[in-house]
Design goal:
Pathway: Purine metabolism; IMP biosynthesis via de novo pathway; N(2)-formyl-N(1)-(5-phospho-D-ribosyl)glycinamide from N(1)-(5-phospho-D-ribosyl)glycinamide (10-formyl THF route): step 1/1. Keywords: Purine biosynthesis, Transferase. InterPro entries: Formyl_transf_N, Formyl_transf_N_sf, GART, GART_AS. A 7-stranded mixed beta sheet has the order 3-2-1-4-5-6-7, sandwiched between helices. It has about 210 residues and is α/β, with parallel strands linked by helices. α1 packs across α6 and α5 crosses α6. It has 7 helices and 7 strands; from the N terminus they run βαβαβαβαβαββαα.
Length: about 210
């Protein structure tokens, strides 16, 4: 049987959009394993989420004034110690260094709450407000590969929602967030490093 894709999850907040990945793996519908959760914030909810799922959760603190590349090297070390093959950024509130992008080229995905390249560089409610201010009729989320250009890496998956009359930044945020979990799962399956389990292989394992 093909070995599960080893995923490292990085975030600074609750990491709610990662929950569907945990759940899909537990249902046996995704040949992957989240082997590590890392955060720059000791009180980040994503660390608690990892612990609740039985996953190693590590706080990698960043002292003020630490060069970006130096901090990212610490994160990379922790990820590599766990044999991580794909990095998922889920609400990671840091811009990563060129060195990190090079180390994880093609192996690091991030989610953004807009249909990139629209509203690149924005965060959270300001993105949804910008969509409404622009009078756009649709929005959504984008999973993209992480590169040196912030929110500028190749698009892997986009999921679209409609913008209804009377929409507020808060209601639009809720609609977009509902698509973030499925977008992550889709993006994992599309990774060139993902090893799909064929029906024949699975049958032979059970036989």
């Amino acid at each position: 049987m093909a070995s599960p894709l080893r995923i490292g999850l990085i975030g600074s907040t609750r990491g709610s959009s990662s929950q569907l990945t945990f759940d899909t793996i537990k249902r046996g519908e995704l040949n992957a394993q989240i082997v590590l959760v890392v955060s720059n914030k000791g009180d980040a909810g994503i660390l608690e989420r990892g612990k609740n799922e039985g996953v190693k959760a590590v706080h990698v603190p960043c002292k003020k004034g630490t060069p970006r590349a130096e901090y990212d090297a610490q994160v990379t070390k922790v990820l590599r110690e766990e044999g991580v093959e794909l990095v998922m950024m889920c609400g990671f509130m840091r811009i990563v260094s060129p060195e990190f992008c090079k180390d994880w080229e093609g192996r690091c995905i991030n989610i953004h709450p807009s249909l990139l390249p629209k509203h690149a560089g924005g965060m959270d409610l300001e993105v949804h407000k910008a969509v409404l201010d622009a009078g756009e009729t649709e929005s959504g989320c984008t999973v993209h590969l992480v590169t040196e250009e912030v929110d500028g890496g190749p698009i892997v998956v986009q999921r679209v929602v409609s913008v209804e009359p009377g929409e507020t930044p808060e209601t639009l945020k809720a609609k977009v967030q509902a698509e973030e979990g499925p977008a992550f799962v889709d993006a994992i399956r599309k990774s060139p490093f993902y090893r799909e389990v064929s029906v024949v292989t699975a049958y032979k394992q059970m036989d």
